[in-house]
Amino acid sequence: MPAIISVASLSKIYASGFQALKNINLEIRSGEIFALLGPNGAGKTTLISTICGIVKASAGSVKVDGHDIVSDWRAARALIGLVPQELTTDAFETVWATVSFSRGLFGLAAKPAHIEKVLKELSLWEKKDNMIRTLSGGMKRRVLIAKALSHEPRILFLDEPTAGVDVELRRDMWELVRTLRETGVTIILTTHYIDEAEEMADRIGVISKGELILVEEKAELMRKLGKKQLTLQLQNKLERIPSELAGHQLALGSNGCELVYTYDAKDDRTGIAALLKELGAAGIQFKDLHTSQSSLEDIFVSLVKDRT
């Protein structure tokens, strides 16, 4: 799949001396959903803003479908729709007027049929004549998405799109994202809801302290860094793990009533059979067991923790 966004050796140092981005190299493929994860202050919004031409890079380059964002900014910007974190809207404009005006900013002729389609997809059609100031926070978030889609971009950036919205709206937004991807739109999102990234994204990027520390296919990331755990509910409480079991990655849980064994999810030889045999030899009996696999959130927390 060809790259629609190419970021090369990108850095950003603010006047205060703070370095928000450090030598970022990234290619985003056409038609994919790419999730950018990172703690607060990691550089997610700065990276998105730089790609969109809002923040000026200190070094490096960005190309959008072959168009340099500095020397060919008009063509590059026309391909991008951006939904920012902040609810910045024209309070005294109607929904229809503000979305139509956003299309006009790109020098495009009026296209009422497209604006109607977007508003209906976002459940805003009945609010089209309402002033923005009368809308709820969730509805204002939908208006921001409508504005970003008004000029029919091929790339859509969603910066924390579901922050502070209710469960129903989150569900509606992700259904819209799936629909857009099916039409060929490339989606780049940042989110604090890692379960969303786990469900929606094709690839995951993790940024920490301005550095892109990992870019990986989601399935491959889960395979490579995921861990599985076998939890044994014991018949009798253990005060400590017997020395003869020291060769296994074991930990006591639930005040000694559980024994937790961590093993590599991708390894064919899990060691479970040998462990159970040694437990029997040590006279340790269990009444139940279950397995669990680390989530994307577990992996993310581990990656970021390792960088602190």
CATH domain class name of the domain at 227-297 = Alpha Beta
Rg, Cα atoms, Å? 24 Å
**Per DSSP, what share of the residues sits in E-state strands of 2 or more residues?**
25-35%
By helix and strand content, what is the structural category?
alpha/beta
Poorly predicted residue ranges? none
Globally, the shape reads elongated
SSE order, one letter for each helix or strand: EEEHEEHEHHHEHEHEEHEEEHEH
The largest beta-sheet arranges its strands as 6-7-8-3-9-10
What features would you describe in this structure?
The chain is α/β, with parallel strands linked by helices. It has a domain at 227-297: Alpha-Beta Plaits. The protein contains ten helices and 14 strands. The chain has a six-stranded mixed beta sheet with strand order 6-7-8-3-9-10, sandwiched between helices. A four-stranded antiparallel beta sheet has the order 2-1-4-5. It has a four-stranded antiparallel beta sheet with strand order 12-13-11-14. The radius of gyration is 24 Å and the shape is elongated.
Key descriptive features of the protein:
308 residues; alpha/beta; Alpha-Beta Plaits; four-stranded antiparallel β-sheet
What is the structure about, briefly put?
The chain has ten helices and 14 strands. The protein has helices at 44-51, 73-78, 95-104, 112-121, 137-149, 167-182, 194-200, 218-225, 272-281, 296-307, and strands spanning 3-13, 19-29, 33-37, 59-64, 67-68, 80-83, 155-159, 186-190, 203-208, 211-217, 227-234, 250-253, 258-264, 286-293.
